[in-house]
Specification:
With about 140 residues, the chain is mostly helical.
Length: about 140
Amino acid sequence: MKQGPARSVVTLGWVFAALAVLMAPWTAYLAVTLPSTHQAAHYDLAWTGFDVGLLVALALTGWAAVRTSSWLPALAGGTAAMLLVDGWFDTVTASTASERWVALVMAVLVEVPLAVLCAWLAVDGQQLFERRVRLSVRRRDRAAG
């Protein structure tokens, strides 16, 4: 039987799986009941705020990659998610056919490829950080010994 933090992670995994199952009927309900159009107050503020958040996420991901920071996997993963959300909502909320085409082209040529790069950084960044730590330990051991 697993003990300590490993057991907590497995337990949380089951909690998230249960939440996903519970979300299925809620999503179906929304698909049936939500109106296809909606006037939103502060639409401009919502998008500007999201884009500022994306700008910060991109900048922090770049900083973490340059510094080979332990924050790189988390930042890159979050940035990947934000890029995909941005592409999706830009495309589906476009009000004209030409806006939709521009959003779709941006999603396919910019946001999705950047999200894939961020996902790669999230996975590979962890390995880069671990290599950096191992090298630091070796250097310290050589200097001490």
